[in-house]
């Protein structure tokens, strides 16, 4: 039961496997005390050994208990052991979960909703910001729904929700499952105080774990119902976009995009900088290629460049480098506002952060190489009267710094 | 005594070496071979019986491999048994034994020759060493 997972065993596994019997007291499980000369010395010093009986007080603070000649040491709370078993031994928990799925087959037929909260945030809040921003020159500012309709048109997403999506969003099935689960609630007996054999303990544990799993599944279904109810208020066209993105795992429109990472439910969101030019100390122009400034939805929101790229604010010429943000305080939790802020700060650093007078950053654009630097920008140098610059297609973004 | 004095005193005292001692060894053997109190009765038997019996088989007994933990946490029953074993046949060779048989033979080996090198004790089965000591004694008596 314990230690089924392949990860290194917890110290508790050793104690548990060693024990033939356990002691239950005040909601805690006590393990047989292991001996060595130091433990024996401490026991003697405490004077507990000389007493005929070590009182079992009616409190949970007792560390050591003695029952006749056997000593027991306080282990863990039974309640927290059952409730944290999913994290303590995930593989064993999944085995119990699969056993429950066999017993209650309707649980396994519940489809997971592919539209996660993070995906909703990206499509409903972050995407409209960046896409509508590109169209500011147009007279009318687009609303969120208009942006999503535009996305739907551009990506040729059929405006009708596919049949399987309708099935996934069907709440009725979930309600039936919730009712059936309420009826399947097992009767969980209480473990008696005092010495219990390992078999008794394991029997109690499997019953309690089953009750805990059912509780967790109920909570999960309730959460699913709530999230699906939220979708009922959303326009079908928007839902179609959400499903399209969830199934495809990636999307790009007008320089803004995202794709799924190896971690389930997590994404990398990016915005393309487009081509831009920077000026050096001597007024020479360097034209930089387009790159994607991205953030991850898990972990810190440090902006980085996806491509193999070089820039004064990037340490090397390599892919996936974090942009030097110096004193900018970046948020660490993923929200639409924080993600927009982090991406914009990253783009601003690349486009407007380099001051040609100060030559700030890891590298200087000038041909004078910085000590220890191997990155040079000579290959990006273009004449001042480059046709694309003259036409205004590529802007020198640090002109006035 | 302030913290600085305590640190100075501890440094002067030097580090106590954490090594394998007799108790750790006996506990490891008890756990590995699931020994019980019957082992104490076995310790009373004569060594020569075993040496004679073994003579009929292979001449070279291989020293068994056994990992001795530095910290010997064990159940109270094993701990008390280990202490009783050490009380019964306490000798400096016990910590080089790796099997119940060697624990038992250590007492007689120490009696025959208390100055066997640690390297030999670590690498050769006590039965071989004991047989060698007995042979040495026999040849000495013959010459006398």
Brief overview, please?
The complex is a heterodimer of chains A (401) and B (144). With 401 residues, chain A is of the alpha+beta class.
What does it look like?
- The complex is a heterodimer of chains A (401) and B (144).
- With 401 residues, chain A is of the alpha+beta class.
- Chain A folds into three domains: 73 residues, no CATH class; 143 residues, no CATH class; 130 residues, no CATH class.
- Helices cover 41% and strands 15% of the residues of chain A.
- In chain A, the strands form three sheets. In chain A, strands 6-7-8-11-12-13 form a six-stranded antiparallel beta sheet.
- Chain A is flat.
- With 144 residues, chain B is mostly helical.
- Chain B has one domain.
- In chain B, 61% of the residues lie in helices and 0% in strands.
- Chain B has eight helices and no strands.
- In chain B, 25% of the residues are buried.
Our estimate of the beta-strand percent of chain B is under 5%
The counted number of beta strands of chain B is 0
Mean pLDDT of chain A: 82
What's the total number of strands of chain A? 14
For the largest beta sheet of chain A, what order do the strands appear in spatially?
6-7-8-11-12-13
Quickly count the helices of chain A.
14
Give the overall form of chain B: globular
Q: How many discrete structural domains of chain B? A: 1
Q: Largest sheet of chain A, if any?
A: 6 strands, antiparallel
How would you sum up the global shape of chain A?
flat
Q: Percentage of helical residues of chain B?
A: 55-70%
Q: Strand-residue fraction of chain A?
A: 5-15%
What's the story with the biggest beta sheet of chain B? none
Mean pLDDT of chain B: 84
Q: What order do the helices and strands of chain A follow?
A: HEEHEEHHHHHHHHEHHEEEEEEEEHEH
Provide the helix percentage of chain A.
40-55%
List the uncertain runs of chain B.
none
Q: How does the helix and strand content of chain A classify structurally?
A: alpha+beta
Oligomer: heterodimer
Give the helix/strand class of chain B: mainly alpha
